[in-house]
Amino acid sequence: MDKLIFILTFVGALLALLFAFAMSRKVLKFSEGTDLMKKISLAIRKGADAYLKRQYKIVLIFFGVMFVVLSVMAIFKLLTPYVPFAFVTGGFFSALSGFIGMKIATLANARTANACRDGLNKGLRIAFSAGSVMGFTVVGLGLLDISVWFFLLKFVFNLSPEGITGAMLTFGMGASSMALFARVGGGIFTKAADVGADLVGKVEAGIPEDDPRNPAVIADNVGDNVGDVAGMGADLYESYVGSIISASALGVAAFHSINAMALPLLLAAVGVVCSIFGTFFVRTKEGATQKQLLSALSRGTNFSAIAIAIIALPLIYFILKDNWTIYFAILAGLVAGVLIGKATEYYTSDGFKPTQNLAATSETGTATIIIGGLSVGMLSTMMPIIIISICVLVAFFVSNGAANAAQGLYGIGLSAVGMLSTLGITLATDAYGPVADNAGGIAQMAGLEEDVRNRTDALDSLGNTTAATGKGFAIGSAALTALALMASYIDKINSIEGGAAKIADLSITNPTVLTGLFIGACLPFVFAAITMNSVGRAAQSVVKEVRRQFKEITGLMDGKAEADYASCVDLCTKASLREMILPTIIAVVVPVIVGLSIGPTGVVGMLAGATASGFLMAIFMSNSGGAWDNAKKYIESGVHGGKGSENHKSAVVGDTVGDPFKDTSGPAINILIKLLSMVSIVFAALVVNFSIL
Amino acid sequence: MDKLIFILTFVGALLALLFAFAMSRKVLKFSEGTDLMKKISLAIRKGADAYLKRQYKIVLIFFGVMFVVLSVMAIFKLLTPYVPFAFVTGGFFSALSGFIGMKIATLANARTANACRDGLNKGLRIAFSAGSVMGFTVVGLGLLDISVWFFLLKFVFNLSPEGITGAMLTFGMGASSMALFARVGGGIFTKAADVGADLVGKVEAGIPEDDPRNPAVIADNVGDNVGDVAGMGADLYESYVGSIISASALGVAAFHSINAMALPLLLAAVGVVCSIFGTFFVRTKEGATQKQLLSALSRGTNFSAIAIAIIALPLIYFILKDNWTIYFAILAGLVAGVLIGKATEYYTSDGFKPTQNLAATSETGTATIIIGGLSVGMLSTMMPIIIISICVLVAFFVSNGAANAAQGLYGIGLSAVGMLSTLGITLATDAYGPVADNAGGIAQMAGLEEDVRNRTDALDSLGNTTAATGKGFAIGSAALTALALMASYIDKINSIEGGAAKIADLSITNPTVLTGLFIGACLPFVFAAITMNSVGRAAQSVVKEVRRQFKEITGLMDGKAEADYASCVDLCTKASLREMILPTIIAVVVPVIVGLSIGPTGVVGMLAGATASGFLMAIFMSNSGGAWDNAKKYIESGVHGGKGSENHKSAVVGDTVGDPFKDTSGPAINILIKLLSMVSIVFAALVVNFSIL
Predict the structure, then answer these.
(1) How many helices (H) and strands (E) are present in chain A, helices listed first?
(2) Which end of chain A has a smaller Cβ tally under 10 Å, C or N?
């Protein structure tokens, strides 16, 4: 069995990586188009590369310091010696996922634009293939990391199942830290450039979006790649790996068997195969409507989801025998992911009442559309909370949780794995969005024909809808994984000498649990505030630079002189890298401080509070932002006065407020809640030995 | 001892009511000024009376229905027979507190304006006396209700201490329901009128605030009274009573003695005396600066707080003997209230960096000041969370909680009582604000001299600062009281046959606790969304009516014809009463549904989640609103372009968004979190007998 697990997971990893490689070859075969298009694409690629290089330098310092800290702790027997290395590999693979995803995205943007000159279907295929490279790289590297570590721990160091999952849990912290850097840094970059470009270009100078005269236009396109692609890649790598290893650890705690440990790995490996088959269903005919485009993508994801749902049943029966009802936990996770995506779509798509009504509030001015957008976001938390609550209860009780709580918690962990099992393809449909967005920018800047631009617009607009679904999975799986990690944390404390006594009273009326809950619930608020402020500060510096260039570069507005794009890219890079440090440090330091002051029960309270309030804040901010964005687009389609009207101006303010909401603070909170658990687990022994309470 | 408790509490109640009566006599001795001032004041009074009458009619239906429901439950032995009656008296006294407060406020507004013609000190004295009437009516009626019920239950029905507190807990639900109606209805009224008057009057027609040509101007002033006065009165009545009876119940559970039950009552009675003495310290000299005015008010509250802190020590030693260290729990509550008020002031006063920096963000437009205000509010949750967490831990551990959890919980309950013990005077300084605000409006409308208006402005602006302190107490005590009520709920369930088994596992990893936590944490978000939407809808109807009057009434803008003020008042009344029903029903129905579906453990989770997230949301929304308001005033003082500049317009948008934040949704959440617990307690037996899980 042990070898089978290793082989199957390793094969799954290889399949995913091979498929990603094949897809990238396919993308690269196409032409980048005209010289101007090549030049623009190169500028974007260079900017993105430069950003990542400098980001990695800073991250390297962080990882170096943490490696030393963890090594010292290992020397003092507060950690096993594998932890510092596991931490580094997690970070490395997370970064690599983001890097490869961004690389292919910046190589595919001009090619997608050029392909749209030939037809819609060709454009869709290239953008989607680029998205697939990203999706399958993430799952491939995730499984590779897991299988290699499994091999080492099992066959080289001969650890028990408990030992294996214990060590593996810790590389999640490396992945999470890297993901937070990537999400926060990239999120600040992309929104600072976006807001800066819009405020001066669109509002003050009155030139259209993606106009080459705007000095921040390249920075804006670079931002799409470093934020929406590299950030998302690192983020979902971390979700994927985190959900698998936390479920494995809970499986070992529940059944003390290698089989229960293996199930999440095998599910993931099977999910890779289902996802690969799913990608072949994504194609559309020329002149396809928005609806047909969407159903082309949905066909792929639906096929994969149904396939895994069918295959999982015999797989689980084979592995867990009498406990096969855990199957329904996986099914609950899959269904919950889809439903949260649907709820997100309902609240943020202009095809439904909430966003249409939001657009109507622009009639009475800016204040009312702001109030309206905030309240849409807050209200939209209700359905996802109910869905995730039902999912948790179902997962727990079908897994025999009433009689054996450990098995129930394993069920909750597996539901997260179920939700993410088809990540290869769901991420492909998600990552395809920024590629299409960039293609649109290049088409505009390179002055391509009207109907090419229309095709890229159609692809781009579709990306907004698939992004909603992607967010459903990201947020839902984050909450479930965080709960699973919380359970793993408790197991971890119990396994440490003297830990059991310190964590005996987890009752919610215990004041340390309660105050932990309060502090944890506060963290997403503080985190959102800090990241929003960062975007504000960075955007202001971009605004000043763009204003300066408009004033000082003569002939810029007449198209006779070229803007200094590089200086805006440089500015965004510096600002975002400076601003990403504080949030990450908070996320790493707070669990340790809470643990050392109010003890392990306080930490559990903190994790529960952060998960609940983080889930709510992430949905609230993402959906408010999405609703404002689409309300603006809805007005641009000609209702309520259309483009250029006072109502439209109000909607643009809403959209600008929504930018850091949905693309910086909201997604970063998803990572925060998992990173808090990971850090808590790694520092568990320190806390047990030295906490005050 | 029994009789002593009754007598002292009853005497405390009488003292407070007598003092309130004396203060009202004093206020009424002054003249209302010119005929025009009398006429305006009468119009405001009539509007407010008409609103309350119609509000009470709707509330009466609700109370009637609930009385029948509770009676039926009592017949089926799911409640004791006192409960339906206790429920009604709680509601009645809560309403009466709001009514009397509003009555005196509407009688004092013109008198304050007129007194300001003679001098600042005279104006301050009248406005503060009116505030005192409100403050001492609230505490007087609260203690009266408590002492009369104590008398009945103890000496007429001969109940045990457990029986007494069990029955008394339930009149909290009546008070909370009434408070929620008053806060939500009043909050919607005041902000709909305010936003409506501003959007059309200030922004579209370009006439100043409180201009008599604006048809919504009377409605705006009525709103200050029905929202900020009547709403606040009912709200704090409920906080006061809720904190005392929940602490009493926890005292009985911890010590099984009448002494422990009596302590909160006696503390409250002593607090009344200290507060009365404190009011004599509030006076200032003519031409006092803002700082001197503030220190005049602070002298009063500080004296009362220090007096109660000193007297409480021997009192507790006399009553609890060896357990006298609980004294520090009370002290922790007092200090926490003050500190949260200071933190609120720091984040919302334009004397400090956060609001000054917020004003500066207006330089880059509306979007940045919105983002800035939201992030100030979110960030401002950090200090209060830390303060309340420390307060909870201190209260628990100094009360011997480590050895005996019940005593620790009693300590937490007492810290809330400590925080609210000087409510008489803190509420007086808080309720004084709307009176000064109204006086300013009347001075403007009646065309009084420039320097009179300057004096009312000075008083009004001071009200913003005292309101911040008042909010600190309201939010802090709400969180502590909610925690105490949660503990009371658990005791209640344990006391019901079959209840103990259903609530045995309160561990935070129990999935029913967890899902309850998720649902509870979501409620404040949903609640905020609904109430904000309500304000938006109501404001839109006011906007339309004001626009209609400007168009149809010829000569209105030249001052030749009079506006139809009554129609705006009527519109606000109808809209706010319609909109207040849904939120209250949600607050009453959700705990029952949660209880019946996932059982008592789910309810406890829900209460903890709602308390944590409600505390955060209330602070976030109140402080964002306060910061926007003061950033606007700061710009009006001449910085960043001053009044009328583009920056000022952006700040006005921020202020308008902040209006429902700080005066409708934020304060309503405070009541929500307590009402949820009260409802849960009343329906405990139903849940134990019929819940699914």
Answers:
(1) 23, 0
(2) N
Count Cβ neighbours within 10 Å for each residue of B337-346 and write b for 16 or more, e otherwise.
bbbbbebbbb
- Sort A82 into a burial class: Cβ within 10 Å, 0-12 / 13-18 / 19+: buried
Helix, strand and coil in chain B, % to nearest 5? 85, 0, 15
Length of chain A: 693
Secondary structure of chain A: what % helix, strand, coil (to 5)?
85, 0, 15
**B583, B531 contact by CB (below 8 A):** yes
**Helix ranges (DSSP H) in A637-683:** 646-660, 666-682
Residue in the block written with tokens 């027609």: B205
3-class SS at B506?
coil
**Chain B positions in Cβ-Cβ contact with residue A680 (cut-off 8 Å):** none
Which of A372, A409, A532 is opposite residue B536, by nearest beta carbon? A372
> Phi, psi (5° rounding) for residue B507?
-60, 145
- pLDDT tier at B516 (50, 70, 90 boundaries)? very high
Beta carbons of A519 and B385 less than 8 Å apart: yes
To the nearest whole number, what is the mean pLDDT of chain A? 90
- Cβ-proximal residues to B533 (8 Å cutoff; 6+ apart), any chain: A372, A375, A379
- Rounded to 10 degrees, what is the CA torsion of B388, B391, B393, B399? -150
For B48-72, the pLDDT digits (tens) are 988 889 899 999 999 999 999 999 9
Are A418 and A267 contacting, i.e. CB atoms less than 8 angstroms apart? yes
> Over the stretch A154-198, which tens digit does the pLDDT of each residue have?
889 888 888 888 888 888 889 999 999 999 999 999 988 888 888
* 3 state SS for A536-587: HHHHHHHHHHHHHHHHHCCCCCCCCCCCCHHHHHHHHHHHHHHHHHHHHHHH
Q: Which residue of A has its CA nearest to B386?
A: A519
Angle in degrees, CA B125, B127, B133, rounded to 5: 100
> Smallest Cα–Cα separation from B693: which of B497, B490, B515?
B515
Closest CA to B409 of A64, A507, A110: A507
Q: Using one digit for the tens of pLDDT, what is the confidence trace for B296-343?
A: 888 888 899 999 999 999 999 998 888 899 999 999 999 998 899 889
DSSP codes joined into one string, B546-603: HHHHHHHSTTTTTTSS---HHHHHHHHHHHHHHHTHHHHHHHHHHHHHHHHHHHHHHH
Could you tell me if B637 and B361 are in contact, meaning their C-beta atoms sit under 8 angstroms apart? no
Which segments of B231-282 does DSSP mark as H helices, in order?
A: 232-255, 258-279
| 3-class secondary structure, A403 | coil
pLDDT digits (tens, 9 = 90+) for B410-431: 999 999 999 999 899 988 888 8
Q: Mind giving me the DSSP string for B385-431?
A: HHHHHHHHHHHHHHTTTTT-HHHHHHHHHHHHHHHHTTHHHHHHHHH
Q: Are B367 and A657 contacting, i.e. CB atoms less than 8 angstroms apart?
A: yes
CB B410 within 8 A of CB B326: yes
Q: Which of residues 8-67 of A touch B (CB under 8 A)?
A: none
Compute the distance between CA of residue A515 and CA of residue A537 in angstroms, rounded to an integer. Answer: 33
**CB of A192 less than 8 A from some CB of B:** no
Chain B, window 158-177: residues with a beta carbon less than 8 angstroms from a chain A beta carbon: none
Q: Which residues of A touch B526 (CB under 8 A)?
A: 378-379, 381-382
Q: Bridge partners of A507?
A: B507
What is d(CA A139, CA A127) in angstroms, rounded to the nearest whole number?
A: 19
Hey, which residues 205-244 in chain A have their CB within 8 Å of chain B? none
The residue of chain A nearest to residue B655, with distances taken between CA atoms, is: A367
Judged on CB neighbours under 10 Å (0-12, 13-18, 19+), B575 is buried
Q: Which residue of A has its CA nearest to B615?
A: A518
Tokens of A433: 């969005």
